[in-house]
User: What shape does this take?
Amino acid sequence: MSDAAFDLRRSIPLPATAEPAWLRRSLILLVLAVLSVLVFAPLATVFAEALKDGVSVALASLGNPDALSAIRLTLIVAAVAVPLNAAFGIAAAWAITKFDWRGKAFLITLIDLPFSVSPVVAGLCFVLLFGANSAIGGWLVANGYPIVFAIPGIALATMFITFPFVARELIPVMTEQGRAEEEAALTLGASGWRMFFTVTLPNIRWALLYGVLLCNARAMGEFGAVAVVSGKIRGKTSTMPIMIEMLYNEYLSVAAFSMAALLAALALVTLTLKSALEWRYADQLAATHRH
Assistant: This one.
């Protein structure tokens, strides 16, 4: 081979997948090994422990009135927190990406606050703010509207922990899309709501869906903040994660793992739904990312 041909060959950039086959296989095996230890093995253990005495025993433990109350409360809190956080996420992303004003960076920092604050600390803050010994909480309790150790407190704590997810998914997408299409719609005479439903919402629907799915998964699995504000009252303010801890501490392992298996199954359903939508609408997703 001549020196010129050798130099030309060296000047051609190699593709990103030009690593040796043994390196690619090693990386794949490493990733699978880590996933097996951190994800697959714990999941398999949870389902195995839940079913070790049979399916009927597991279902009977889930049919207990306290277990049913925990399941119902978890679904209610998620049904309240997720739509409200979706609305907040859209409003926050709109304010940050569509307008120029001082304080945008500070608002983004506040949105990220739940990621840096311990959920237990957040729950304690709600207790101090809305507890019976505080001015606001005392007035609410006296008028029959308790927040702490009641469902409203659980919903507030869950909303605080989960509100960054939707906004954090929407802000980069809406920043990349810019304002041109909305401004064109307004110029053509569209009202604000019509512009939102016909221009903005179709462009952000996939990011919004991902944020909602992440928010829902975290809302159903939240423990720290809810454990502080709920008081762990069995049959009244115990969500599924709290009920799992209570059952396990009482050495009711089958009941605890059955509840954990149900919570894991709900998370897997959320993940499966996300993956199915990605596969079904792959072309639309690619077009959205190109845009």
About this structure: DSSP finds 16 helices and no strands in the chain. The mean pLDDT is 84.
